[in-house]
Amino acid sequence: MLILGIESSCDETAAAVVKDGKTVLSDVIASQIDIHRRFGGVVPEIASRNHTLQIAGVVNEALTRANLKLADMDAIAVTCGAGLLGALLVGVSYAKALAYGAKKPLYAVSHIKGHIAANYLAHDITPPYICLLVSGGHSAILKIDDYENFKLLGTTRDDAAGEAFDKTARILGLPYPGGPEIERLAATGKPTITFSRPSVKDKDLDFSFSGLKTAVMNYVENARARNTSMNPADVAASFQKTAVDMLVENTFKAVRRTGLKTVAIAGGVSANAYLRAEAEKVAYEIGARLVYPPLRLCTDNAAMIAAAAYYMSISGVAPAALDLDASASIPL
Fold first, then answer.
1. Smallest Cα–Cα separation from 117: which of 156, 151, 144, 85?
2. Is the peptide bond before 128 cis (omega within 30 degrees of 0)?
3. d(CA 218, CA 52)
4. Same domain, yes or no, for 100 and 154?
5. 266-275: per-residue pLDDT in tens?
6. 177 pLDDT exceeds 70?
7. Does residue 111 contact residue 9 with C-beta atoms inside 8 Å?
8. Comparing 85 with 228, which gets the higher pLDDT?
9. Which of 139, 121, 112 lies closest to 251, judged by CA?
10. Are residues 55 and 140 in the same domain?
11. What integer pLDDT is reported at residue 331 of this predicted model?
């Protein structure tokens, strides 16, 4: 089964051709990072305009690299949410036009399901398992019962982990995107600063990152106000350690409670090497299997969208109608 995937939820215009939900025949990404870096973050209107300029060329390039034509596709898949509404609408509108013109079924894919499916492209993994989903918009612990049914075990009460990384990077004066910059800076520092960890008493698998971000901001502002020495690398390392400890601790708490022995990490923050290393330590200690996508599939891409659509199709999910609309938010 050949599926053309299209992704435009934020600042990457992407298209890919995937065979049978496993084999990536092409994977094309046009990134807007350099455009948005000067603003310190993604500007939605600029993102939408650039998606409009890029999408036709990106889709054509994906088909060309796969040495296939649109007529060869068995289905088209597109991210319908969550993300920036204007950006999503570009992809959804283009995919609907392609599906209508080529008379192909259209699958409306949740961006969240896409990130989860990224691991199916890289690993021989089947449900049930525990998934730590960590990105700029979401932080959640999910029990993946099958390809289409997930149980939410824990989520963030405020900021997502990726959002906290980006905001902390801004506090330290680091460029966009902040997550990789925090990781690079932290590698040169030591976690010598103790930042308080917010506790969530009524549901102990939930996260709260807003207080951690505020603690970093107060530490930095106090140091600057008092003109005392501060090592930004130590701040970054201490923040990263605190955030990762929270993610890993709750994830493996869920593993122990469910008895499942396979753990997947998905989403943009799964690219963080420190998170991977700390999760690997705990997985080894308890005899669990840990998987995460290769770096290219951690961040937004269309291969994961095409893969997710394949598992939707074999699970009996009906294709979308041509009145499909985009949605800025989709329930986990």
1. 144
2. yes
3. 41
4. no
5. 999 999 999 9
6. yes
7. yes
8. 85
9. 139
10. no
11. 82
Cα separation, 254 vs 311, in Å, equals 25
Same domain, yes or no: 188 and 83: no
pLDDT at 198 over 90: no
**HSE, side-chain direction, 13 A CA sphere, residue 236:** 23
d(CA 89, CA 244): 34
pLDDT of residue 196 exceeding 90, the answer is: no
Q: How many domains does the chain have?
A: 2
HSE, CB side, 13 Å, CA atoms: give it for residue 229: 2
**Distance, CA of 35 to CA of 320 (rounded, Å):** 33
CATH number at residue 303: 3.30.420.40
Q: Is residue 323 part of a domain?
A: no
**How confident is the prediction for the chain on average, in pLDDT?**
95
- pLDDT for residue 59: 98
Considering the entire predicted model, what is its pTM?
0.95
The predicted model gives 94-110 an average pLDDT of 98
Q: Which residue has the tokens 């390039």?
A: 61
Q: Is there a domain that residue 320 lies in?
A: no
156 within 8 A of 207, measured Cβ to Cβ: yes
End-to-end CA distance of the chain: 27
Note down the domain range covering 160: 127-295
Indicate whether 261 and 306 sit together in one domain: no
Q: Which of 291, 281, 287 is nearest to 245 (CA)?
A: 281
Question: Which of 170-179, 194-203, 256-265 is predicted with the least confidence, judged by mean pLDDT?
Answer: 194-203
Return the percentage of the chain with pLDDT > 90, whole number: 92
Examine the domain organization and report whether 54 and 15 are in the same domain: yes
Per the CB < 8 A criterion, the answer to whether 330 and 98 are in contact is: no
What is the rounded distance in angstroms from the CA atom of residue 127 to the CA atom of residue 93? Answer: 32
